[in-house]
């Protein structure tokens, strides 16, 4: 039984990380999966919080031991995957679970956990996406081109998802997600004893 699991996907630089952090602040009951990745950490990222940063060998072991709910090579380079046991444990505890993963991973979860809900975060426009990626400044030109090529493919798959949410303003996006997921917010729970 998969409990209440939501996959949030969308192209590079659409703001998935920012949206999920804001959702977590508004709804602390939400449990967000920490993915394993072979990508090296960015300067601001912490191991165990943003990702579990693992070697290629460690990732191979996770796959071989059936430790991942899904995994994919993203942007043609590094592997990313969702550790299975913590997700199932959080869902079994009744926590609303969020998986922030790419299109390939979303498709695998749809196969394995058909009850899971899926949300595609879309940029307001293609130009806005390019601006955000360039403005973020975390990738070199070659990496940006690769990410934009993946983004084109991902944008074309938006209609596969149960819901499409356009991320124009983070606060509005979070409100829409709270509605879609049927979540109680901080302000609603504060008044309850
Ligand atoms: P970034 O390198 O910018 O942190 O993430 C690159 C892409 O990998 C994003 O589209 C993100 O959603 C995706 N991603 C992160 N974790 C996972 C995961 O566990 N599985 C899959 N399939 N994709 C992931």
Short description:
The chain is α/β, with parallel strands linked by helices and 193 residues long. The protein contains eight helices and nine strands. The two termini are 30 Å apart.
Keywords:
Rossmann fold; five-stranded parallel sheet; alpha/beta; binds guanosine-5'-monophosphate; four-stranded mixed sheet
Structure description:
The protein has one domain: Rossmann fold. Helix content is 43%, strand content 20%. It is built from eight helices and nine strands. The strands form two sheets. A five-stranded parallel beta sheet has the order 2-7-1-8-9, sandwiched between helices. It binds guanosine-5'-monophosphate (5GP). Residues 12, 16, 35, 39, 70-72, 74, 80-82, 100-102, 104-105 line the site of guanosine-5'-monophosphate.
Write the layout of secondary structure elements.
Elements: E1 5-9, H1 16-26, E2 31-32, E3 36-37, E4 52-53, H2 56-64, E5 68-74, E6 78-83, H3 84-92, E7 97-100, H4 103-112, E8 117-122, H5 126-136, H6 141-156, E9 163-166, H7 170-181, H8 186-190
Helix pairs in contact: 1-7
Bound molecules: guanosine-5'-monophosphate.
Guanosine-5'-monophosphate binds near residues 16 and 102.
Q: CATH homologous superfamily, by name?
A: P-loop containing nucleotide triphosphate hydrolases
The CATH architecture designation is 3-Layer(aba) Sandwich
Instruction: Give the overall shape, derived from the CA principal axes.
Output: globular
Total of DSSP H or I helical runs spanning 4+ residues: 8
Unreliable runs, pLDDT <50, ≥5 residues? none
- Which fold name corresponds to the CATH topology? Rossmann fold
User: What is the class in the CATH system?
Assistant: Alpha Beta
Strand order of the largest sheet: 2-7-1-8-9
Topology as H/E string? EHEEEHEEHEHEHHEHH
Overall mean confidence score, pLDDT: 93
Radius of gyration: 16 Å
Helix content: 40-55%
Amount of beta strand: 15-25%
From the helix content, strand content and strand pairing, which structural class follows?
alpha/beta
Assembly status: single chain
């Amino acid at each position: 039984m998969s409990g209440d699991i939501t996959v949030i996907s969308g192209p590079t630089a659409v703001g998935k990380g920012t949206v999920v952090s804001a959702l977590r602040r508004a709804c602390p009951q939400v449990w967000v999966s920490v993915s394993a990745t072979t990508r090296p950490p960015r300067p601001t990222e912490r191991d165990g919080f943003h990702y579990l940063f693992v070697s290629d060998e460690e990732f191979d072991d996770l796959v071989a031991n059936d430790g991942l709910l899904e995994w994919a090579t993203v942007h043609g380079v590094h592997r990313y995957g969702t550790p299975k046991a913590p997700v199932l444990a959080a869902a079994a505890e009744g926590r609303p679970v969020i998986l922030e993963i790419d299109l390939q991973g979303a498709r695998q979860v749809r196969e394995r956990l058909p009850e899971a809900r899926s949300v595609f975060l879309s940029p307001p426009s293609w130009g806005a996406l390019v601006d955000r990626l360039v403005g973020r400044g975390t990738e070199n030109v070659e990496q940006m081109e690769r990410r934009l090529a993946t983004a084109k493919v991902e944008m074309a798959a938006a209609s596969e998802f149960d819901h499409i949410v356009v991320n124009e303003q983070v606060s509005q996006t979070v409100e829409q997600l709270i509605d879609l997921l049927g979540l109680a917010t901080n302000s609603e729970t504060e008044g309850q004893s």
